[in-house]
Design goal:
CATH class: Alpha Beta
CATH architecture: 2-Layer Sandwich
Shape: elongated
Oligomer: single chain
Strand order of the largest sheet: 2-5-1-6
Structural class: alpha+beta
Radius of gyration: 17 Å
Number of domains: 1
Distance between the termini: 12 Å
Length: about 110
Amino acid sequence: MKKIEAIIRKSKFKDVKEALHNVEVNFFSYWDVTGIGNEKEGHVYRGISYSTSEIQRRYLSIVVNDDFVETTINAILKAAATDRVGDGKIFVMPVEEAYRIRTGEKGGKSLN
C-alpha cells in the first residue's frame, strides 16, 4: 500500500476529484492549506499590490493498493495541470498497515 499526498490548486479540485472517481479512487481526505511557493511576483488589482508568495491550495491524502499507484498519480497529473508555475506537488510514501475500524479487516482489504 502507498500513501499519495497531493497539493493542488483549489480551482482544480473539482477536476481532480472527478478524475479520481473515474479511476475508482472513491475515498480520500482533503484540507484547505496555505503554503509558500516559488512564485515571486505580486499582482496589482485596482491599484493595490497583492503578494502571491502565500498560496491557497488543497491538500489531498489518498491511500491505495500498490497496483493503483500509477493510475492514481496519472489521474491527478492530468486533471491538476495548467502548465503554469504553482500547479502543485505529489508525494508517494509506503504504508505499513491499514485497518477498517468497523470490521477489523486489515491490509489491502480494508481499502475496498
